[in-house]
Amino acid sequence: MEAKASQRSALRSARAALSPSALDTAAQGLLITGQKLLKQLNLPLEKSGVAGYLPSGSEPAVLKLLTVLSQNGHPIYLPVCQADFRLAWTRWFPGVELRRSSYAPVLEPVGELHDVQLMNSIGLLLIPALAVDARGVRMGQGGGYYDRFLATLSELDEAPVLAAVVYSTEVLAAGAVASDTWDQAVDYALTPEFFQDLRC
Fold first, then answer.
1. Cut 0.85: pTM above it
2. What is the mean pLDDT of residues 150-167?
3. 3-class state of residue 128 by DSSP
């Protein structure tokens, strides 16, 4: 736990040093690489939904990507924090009402809530992360919301493709991300410059 906390602190400090222009450039890059990843995945119509997140602070900004995907007909869903560090999901589109979460320092869209069964219609799940290694081990912010949710995907016949969204410098060598037994692996790293298949 101490190693993970130290690594998380260093990663947050590096992000905090990013300039506004660097963040804007990253957002534009994710717009391009995110669409390329979706094209490569060639998802069937019944899995055309995309689940993402509203970026906060210096997190990799996927809002431009989600906006374009929504305009292109992809149903977009974002997480809503629930009690006991659980996640539900609700539909998002540009202009939807947002409100402050009751459980975390984030904004969330207002709408009907869905449980894990929604993921049967989701082809790609974009997951915020501080880093990811070549084995797909992801480091989150420490709340445990996503690890708990990802563990429930085993209930589905076919889980969505999981992509950790990070900066290119945060894609690390295998074993470089401190992890615990409950950490859930992801399939891809998505960065402003490239995406990388992490499945062995």
1. yes
2. 94
3. strand
